[in-house]
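Hey, can you fold this?
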Amino acid sequence: MAADGEMRWTTTIIISTSLQSHETIRMLQAQQHRIRLSDSVECGSFIFPLSGTAFKLVEPESVRDEPGLIEQIQKFVRVHRNSFVLLYAPFNGKRQLDMLSLIQEKFFSSNLRILPVRNNSEILKGMLTIAKATSKPHVDRIRHRMSLAKTHIVERSPVWDMLKKLS
């Protein structure tokens, strides 16, 4: 049981073998997530099959070929309809900001979302929050709560009260 009384959420994550020595894998395993390493997924990828989300870790300091990176991200976006780039930038230097601007400019009208992260903890928190919110039954629970909130707002609206008085 988690601290808030809910069951701890765990899932299966397919991770690129290029990340097999990355600290985030140890952190995910410590939280009891099932890890599957794969050579057949895009380099630097974390894929959450049950939620339909995929994350690509990009470290601006290790990018040598910007056009090559853009091609990799384009392929990633074509393969995964619910895709995120985890832009790992421990500090905001000129190189990190240039990389962020380049990716934003190239993928402005696509379904790619960019999530700047500063450390492994933020990588984990961002991925798990998004994956959990988009997986069943959590997505159904969120939709139900949103529907209840919308109904509550409409019923309590002063405009609604005014319309009732007019009829």
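Oh, and this one too while you're at it.
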Amino acid sequence: MGLECRYELSQSAYIKLVLHALKHRSAAVNGLLVGHLTEDGAAVVHIADSIPLSHSQIALLPSLELALIQVEEHFSSKGMGIVGYYHANERYDDRELGNAAKKIGDHVFRYFPRAAVLLLDDKKMEELMEGKGRDPALQLYTRDSSKSWRQVGSDGSSQLILKEPSANIVLVDYIASQKWQELVDFDDHLDDISKDWLNPDLFN
């Protein structure tokens, strides 16, 4: 078994990572999760923000390392650090955590031993768009004692919850207005440094 923990995902972090996947529907996308850990009785990882990284060379370690350094430097002054990784597969019907995602998850695990990997679940996303789903459109993976990434169910000791219950309603509104067109990832920033990977104006 891995370390038991609850993962609390903020509305802005959740919406941003879904918009990233929607902007690049025919490509795999990934990004980092930023937040902090509290251990007041039960361990809770508070995921405050998501940082969209790539929509092209997912497994390219040099650009990943550069992003990790910049993200750590920016958020450490705010009392936060990298707490996980998110991934959306290239194929719509692919709901498996692939080797590239696992390797990057292992890399993030070195920074934070309670790291989570969140995989976008297109089936849940579809239900959400039809007004049926209430759960986050994500699968939660944590690393167990055998160093393998395993999917965690909501009935397990580790679980993923949305901090704001209305997050899915807000997300559907953003999707309807094609908000993803405004989102910038680290790839975009490397192509044009005037584009801000922090997306400070996305929700304004």
